[in-house]
């Protein structure tokens, strides 16, 4: 069977003042971190910044890779790359995005429960430094 490779990026955005994680409730009925598919010619980090802005209105900068998950979904081999992110600008209002029902800051307990495919939960990702990301030029 031929599989198509798909790269999906997410940003792990944590507010230390409230101990909450920024998450989105998708039209398919699931919660996730903000993010989405990487477009052709776009770097992983560019895609992360763009997707977070489109879905939440937040401007961010991207840090280390917090997690890398892989799944076979239908005829796709999907790589889910989650980055540590830092908010650089908060939006005046949250944009309406066609695939997102709502954007909310959720407690770590809720985030861990809603995202069981991260071993040890989202909380564990916050305490680990992650892996460096390098875009090679040339």
Any overview of this molecule?
The chain is of the alpha+beta class and 138 residues long. It has one domain (4-127): Nucleoside Triphosphate Pyrophosphohydrolase (Alpha-Beta Complex), CATH 3.90.79. It has helices at 44-56, 108-114, 121-127, and strands at residues 4-12, 14-15, 20-26, 31-32, 35-37, 59-73, 76-89, 100-107. The strands form two sheets. The chain has a four-stranded mixed β-sheet, with helices on both faces. Strands 2, 3, 4 and 8 form a four-stranded antiparallel β-sheet that branches. A hairpin with a 4-residue loop joins strand 3 (20-26) and strand 4 (31-32). The longest helix has 13 residues, at 44-56. The N and C termini lie far apart (34 Å). The mean pLDDT is 92.
């Amino acid at each position: 069977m031929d599989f198509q490779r798909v790269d999906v990026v997410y940003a792990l955005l944590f507010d230390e003042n409230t101990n909450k994680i920024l998450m989105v409730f998708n039209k398919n009925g699931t919660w996730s971190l903000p993010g989405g598919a990487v477009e052709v010619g776009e770097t992983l980090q560019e895609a992360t910044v763009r997707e977070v802005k489109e879905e939440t209105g937040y401007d961010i900068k991207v840090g280390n890779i917090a997690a890398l998950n892989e799944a076979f979904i239908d005829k796709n081999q999907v790589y889910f790359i989650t980055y540590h992110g830092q908010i650089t600008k908060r939006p005046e209002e949250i944009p309406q995005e066609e695939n997102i029902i709502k954007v909310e800051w959720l407690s770590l307990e809720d985030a861990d429960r809603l995202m069981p495919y991260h071993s040890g939960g989202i909380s564990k990702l916050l305490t680990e430094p992650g892996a460096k990301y390098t875009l090679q030029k040339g």
